[in-house]
Design a protein that fits this description.
Helix content is about 50%, strand content about 10%. The model has no long low-confidence stretch (mean pLDDT about 95). It has helices spanning about 10-25, 30-35, 40, 60-75, 75-85, 120-135, 160-170, 185-195, 215-230, 235-240, 245-255, 280-285, 285-305, 315-325, 345-355, 390-395, 415-435, 435-445, 450-455, 480-500, 510-525, 535-545; strands spanning about 45, 50-55, 110, 115, 150-155, 180, 200-205, 240-245, 260, 330-335, 375-380, 400-410, 470-475. The longest helix is centred in the C-terminal third of the chain and has 22 residues, at about 480-500. It has three domains: about 10-75 and about 305-435 and about 470-505, 3-Layer(aba) Sandwich (Rossmann fold); about 110-290, Glucose-6-phosphate isomerase like protein, domain 1 (Rossmann fold), CATH 3.40.50; about 510-545. The strands form three sheets. Strands 1-2-13-12-10-11 form a six-stranded mixed beta sheet, sandwiched between helices. A five-stranded parallel beta sheet has the order 6-5-7-8-9, with helices on both faces. It has a two-stranded antiparallel ribbon with strand order 3-4. The chain is α/β, with parallel strands linked by helices and about 550 residues long. The protein is built from 22 helices and 13 strands.
């Protein structure tokens, strides 16, 4: 059974939301608090070590009720069931979407084409565990008899962004192994990594579902040539492993069966970090911590499946996002983790969100005349406060924001953490309240400025406020809490896709540029000539003449 194909803008709920929007759009968040001092108690969700405070938004409890009605009218509950039970909801590729199964418990059952996939998932997890323990303990030796010191993950997109982000996020829990990532086909990138390692003490993980991704295979081939300058082909199997489903191609590369970690076609690349793609994480933080990451994601899965929509974190966050996207015509969302460990989270979510929901045809194959997708960007606090917060405070755009913070620091640097979190709380308050002309005038008078001086400077010191934010406050950054946080955003993406009536789990938009690049490469490397627009033709000519 496929997902429902309902244009959300044609529903009764959408019409009611439009009417409601007109009635409250000129009101401020500050005025909502003035009318209802208890607002914070209503517009929040407490779940485990998570507190989600969404009271600093341009919404009322009625807004949430109307948005929940929209989700119900669009049969979200039924869609969630299909998402978790192996229905082929990735209809354009005729595939199930089961990254959630990768973190399921061993006694559960998830069927794909009538076969329970959970036993195989746990067999692969055990293989990852055993391999990781061999490397970490030093029992596994390289071709010269030395233990492994470095791991190089070679992949791109989801095969790089997920493992790279999580390894950075959980660096506090890492062991002695040095983890490196090669993604860009830029030769300078791979060569820079090769300068830092030795072939005899390095394991290379080649991550490509089809084992045909141009960037990954180009980098893998360069690494292989570099490796063979120091030793012979017989040692490739000792130092190269593959995460892929293309067994024949892997063997041709020289990798043996025992070093192949399979990847199923019902795992989308940008949601694949829970699979064998996460082997670099298991190597870096150990299989026990990797399992805690999966456990945290599974807890969020259960919350998402079982909680009523009004208290369902991914559902509420998705509905608020739709509210800004489709009623305020806000195009971007900013992710602001107040932890340097999470500096790669905005980039990770860029792919997860924009590759999933950047679609302009609905599930019926009809062109869409309403806004879908969000432009995701961001950086860590407090760095971002000294960069783009100027635009957020005094710019002309509505930019909904997610502030992510932790109550307990990983190192016992209490003074640092208190200053960090005071900024976290202050920024959400400042974005909401702003500073009006009367407040600015009073401050300037107190500073001793004349009336003429005040008149000149006053407009530039006014902050309009009314800027929306969600506060995501978590007890501590651990493998488990990170797993829950990532799964929360995954499910938010899914809910948005259901509401927008799009397929979130294909990515045909990635293919066009790739195919054109193949033709242009032939043109650059040989005498082939293809038809181009004048600009592209001139750029290629300039490159060929001067390269």
């Amino acid at each position: 059974m496929s997902l429902n194909k309902i244009n959300p803008t044609k529903t009764k709920s959408w019409g009611k939301l439009k009417t409601h929007f007109k009635s409250i759009s000129s009101s401020s968040i500050k005025s909502f608090f003035n009318k209802d001092p208890e607002r914070e108690k209503i517009l929040k969700i407490e779940w485990g070590d998570f507190l989600i405070d969404y009271s600093k938004n341009r919404i009322t409890p009625k807004t949430i009720n109307l948005l929940v009605n929209l989700a119900e009218e669009l049969n979200l509950k039924e869609s969630i069931k299909k998402y978790f039970t192996g229905e082929k909801i990735n209809q354009t590729e005729n595939r199930a979407v089961l990254h959630t199964a990768l973190r399921s418990k061993q006694n559960e059952s998830v069927l794909v084409d009538g076969l329970n996939v959970i036993p195989e998932i746990h067999n692969i997890k055990n293989k990852i565990k055993n391999f990781s323990n061999e490397i970490i303990s030093g029992k596994y030796k390289g071709y010269s008899g030395k233990s492994i010191t470095d791991i190089v993950n070679v992949g791109i997109g989801g095969s790089d962004l997920g493992p790279s982000m999580i390894n950075e996020a959980l660096k506090f829990y890492s062991n002695h192994l040095n983890i490196h990532f090669v993604s860009n086909v830029d030769g300078d990138h791979v060569r820079d990594i090769l300068k830092k390692i030795k072939p005899e003490t390095t394991i290379f993980i080649i991550v490509s579902k089809t084992f045909s991704t141009q960037e990954t295979l180009t980098n893998a081939s360069t690494i292989k040539k570099w490796f063979l300058k120091s030793t012979s082909k017989k040692h490739i199997s000792k130092h190269f492993i593959a995460v892929s489903s293309a067994i024949k191609k892997i063997r041709e590369f020289g990798i043996k069966n025992e070093n192949i970690f399979p990847m199923k076609n019902w795992i989308g690349g940008r949601f694949s970090v829970w699979s064998s793609v996460g082997i670099s994480i298991s190597l870096s933080i150990g299989p026990e911590n990797f399992n805690k990451l999966l456990k945290g994601a599974h807890k969020m899965d259960t919350h998402f499946k079982e909680s009523r929509f009004e208290k369902n974190i991914p559902v509420i966050l998705a509905l608020i996002s739709v509210w800004y996207n489709n009623f305020y015509n806000s195009e971007t969302e900013v992710i602001l983790p107040y932890s340097e460990y999470l500096k790669k989270l905005p980039s990770y979510l860029q792919q997860a969100v924009m590759e999933s929901n950047g679609k302009n045809f609905d599930r019926s194959g009809d062109p869409i005349d309403y806004q879908t997708g969000n432009i995701i960007w961001g950086s860590t606090g407090t760095n971002s406060q000294h960069a783009f917060f100027q635009l957020m405070h005094q710019g002309t755009k509505i930019i909904p924001s997610d502030f992510i913070g932790f109550i307990i620091p990983l190192y016992n640097e209490i003074d640092h953490h208190q200053k960090l979190m005071s900024n976290y709380f202050a920024q959400t308050e400042a974005l909401m309240n702003g500073k009006n002309a009367k407040e600015v005038e009073r401050e300037l008078k107190e500073s001793g400025l004349s009336k003429e001086e005040i008149k000149k400077i006053l407009p530039f010191k006014v902050f309009k406020g009314n800027n929306p934010s969600n506060s995501i406050l978590i007890k501590k950054l651990t493998p488990e809490s990170l797993g829950s946080l990532i799964a929360m955003y995954e499910h938010k993406i899914f809910v948005q896709g259901i509401i927008w009536n799009i397929f979130s789990f294909d990515q045909w938009g990635v293919e066009l540029g790739k195919k054109l690049a193949q033709n242009i490469l032939l043109e650059i490397q040989g005498n082939n000539n293809f038809k181009h627009d004048p600009s592209t033709a001139n750029l290629i000519k300039k490159y060929k003449l001067n390269s």
